[in-house]
Amino acid sequence: MRVSRMFYLYRRLYVQQLKAILEYNKDFYILMCSAALTQVLGFVFLWVIYDRIPDINGWQFWEVTFMYAMIFVTEGVGSLFFEGTWRMGRLVNMGELDRYLLRPVPVVLQVFCTGIGINGLGNLLIGGVIIWQSLVHGHIHWTLGKITITLLLLLTAVIIRVSINLAANSAAFWIKNAGNAFPLMVHNLADLAKYPLTLFPQAIRVFVSTVLPYAFISFYPATYIFGKSDWSGWWMLAPVAALGSAAAAYGIFRFGLSRYESTGN
Amino acid sequence: MSAIQIKKYRSIANRSLQNVLAYRTSYVIGFLANAVNLLAIYFLWHGIYSGRAEVGGYSWDQMKTYLLVTFLANSVLSWYSETSISGKILDGSVAVDLLKPIDFQTARFSETLGASLLEGGMSAILLILFASFLSGITLPHSLLVYVLFALSLLGAILVKFGVVYLAALLCFWSTGSMGIVWTRIAVTNLLSGALVPLAFFPDWLERLALYLPFQSIIHTPTMIFLQQTGTLESLKLIALQAFWGIALWIAGKGMWNWAVRQVTIHGG
């Protein structure tokens, strides 16, 4: 299927969801504000700590807030545009996926558009402001090349995040009726990437760089942008990590789908 | 309350305990997810303390203990208890509860207590295992401190229930619970001292936090366990917990009376 057609279908499906959620506008605002608040409080946490000490392991305040915000922003994009991944448990267990299989539209595309997490908007706004502030305060020498690479790293970060979400939620094909516990655990592991990787023991560093490449969302982009020479070059693996996790996630999803048996009536 | 009344609520507590047991996989995975959080925070603090003897009046050993006690106090009343109240309101099963000859608030509290006993017990066991791998955890030596600590944990449950219950009742007015739950968690974490000890805050924020009920949830048990307060002062803090627990309970009653008038039950 052509890419432009995919975008067209995605947009149509998305707009339908948007209409649905705008009906409950009270929740809409509460969710948006609560996501923003959660993130602001994390920021306050770092601020309170940095008020007492100049650096953690050689990492300055704005460098850590950048990593912190990257985790939130990518999550925000994930909820805002790909919230459906989080509903897979229900789709599989209620047999709702049957409907999707009948339509001549890629199943994964339909899954992506099964909902809109409006909390993502809160994450995106506050996270965007924090990232922007980090970049302003980070004493960075901007060149055209650097701007291009930074944008590329933001894009790969989003791809990695959404891929991990898709892969983790595909567990619904195997774990019947366990709620969202497993994908939530995978989601929580992103906490490890909110802070500099140098804080952690080797095993954890390897884990969040390879198995679940969260470090390519926050840490490696930060080492490039803030010019941490000890780590120069590792960010170049970000596109590889993005392609790899996207392919792996799609593979897991397809494999799970082949095992899907629907629910009997 | 008569004996029959108490029996009723005890069976509710018992049932909720069994409920947690029935969904143990979810519970264990949820617990592991929180442990990941603890791990991240542990290493963050480890990094903060590298090359420093103390930060904000806490030594590294004290901070390790602080993290573990915080984790215990937080997992005593967990996600399960939290979502079961708002769930009842959102799916309309609260309508059935309105018909029953039991007090909604007391019933929910019994339920929470039942689940808390199990969740708290399991967390305590896992924490002891975890702590045995860490060196330098500062354990109190006097039995009295442990008694006071246990009392303060009960107080913490009471206060946290009060906060959770009030937040859950807001679901009568909204149509979803996630936003309310997240907001509640974020505010409680900050103002109770779950993120950083209150002593780390700037003065004005610390004073504000001490005037609010949230501090009873984490600040009080950790202060007692780390022996940063004397016996008399610990008792005062526990009395303060009791005060907040009762005040929130009364507020919950008031809000319930307002809320039941807003009930919209979907479906027939």
N-to-C SSE string of chain B, H for helix and E for strand: HHEEHHHHHHHHH
How many separate helices of chain B? Answer: 11
| Rounded Rg of chain A | 19 Å
What is the ordering of alpha helices and beta strands of chain A? HHHHHHHHHHHH
Number of strands of chain A: 0
**Major sheet size, sense and barrel closure of chain B:** 2 strands, antiparallel
Indicate the structural class of chain A. mainly alpha
Q: Can you give the helix content of chain B as a percent range?
A: over 70%
How would you describe this protein?
The complex is a heterodimer of chains A (265) and B (268). In chain A, 66% of the residues lie in helices and 0% in strands. Chain A is an all-alpha fold. The two termini of chain A are 33 Å apart. The mean pLDDT of chain A is 86. Chain B is mainly α and 268 residues long. Chain B is globular, with a radius of gyration of 19 Å. Helix content of chain B is 74%, strand content 1%. In chain B, α3 packs antiparallel against α6, α4 runs antiparallel to α6 and α4 packs parallel to α7. Chain B has eleven helices and two strands; from the N terminus they run ααββααααααααα. The chains are: A mainly alpha (265), B mainly alpha (268). Chains A and B meet through α2 and α9 of A and α2 and α8 of B.
Short description:
The complex is a heterodimer of chains A (265) and B (268). Chain A is mainly alpha-helical and 265 residues long. Chain A has helices at residues 3-21, 25-50, 61-82, 88-93, 97-102, 107-112, 119-137, 144-169, 181-188, 202-209, 219-225, 238-259.
